[in-house]
Specification:
With 90 residues, the protein is α+β, with helices and mostly antiparallel strands. It has one domain: Nuclear Transport Factor 2, Chain: A. 34% of the residues lie in helices and 37% in strands. It has a 5-stranded antiparallel β-sheet. A hairpin with a 5-residue loop joins strand 4 and strand 5. It is globular. It starts with a helix and ends with a helix.
Length: 90
C-alpha cells in the first residue's frame, strides 16, 4: 500500500509541474504534526496534507464549484475535478 501512495504522490506532483500549479501557502500545524500545502492554478485549488516525516503518505483534497469537499484517491480524480472546474469558467 505504501508503494501505491508514493506513486500517487509522485504522479500528482509530476502532473502539477506540467500544468503549472504553484504553491500558494504551506503551514505546519504543530499540535497535530501535520503539514498542509495549498496549491492553485487559475481558479482551481487543492490541498495536500501529511504528517511530518511521512511525505510519502499524503492526502489530497479539492473542492468543487459548490464548495463540496472531494477526497482525491487517484490522479484521474484530480484531473477530472480540475477539467470540470475549467469547463465551468466559460
Amino acid at each position: 500500500m505504501n508503494k501505491l501512495r508514493a506513486s500517487l504522490h509522485s504522479r500528482v506532483h509530476n502532473w502539477m509541474d506540467k500544468i503549472g500549479f504553484r504553491l500558494n501557502s504551506s503551514e505546519v500545524i504543530k499540535k497535530t504534526g501535520v503539514k498542509v500545502d495549498h496549491y492553485f492554478f487559475k481558479t482551481f485549488n487543492f490541498i495536500e496534507q501529511h504528517k511530518l516525516g511521512q511525505a510519502e503518505k499524503p492526502e489530497f483534497i479539492c473542492f468543487d464549484t459548490y464548495g463540496e469537499k472531494i477526497k482525491i484517491r487517484s490522479l484521474l480524480d484530480l484531473q477530472s475535478a480540475f477539467f470540470e472546474n475549467l469547463s465551468e469558467l466559460k
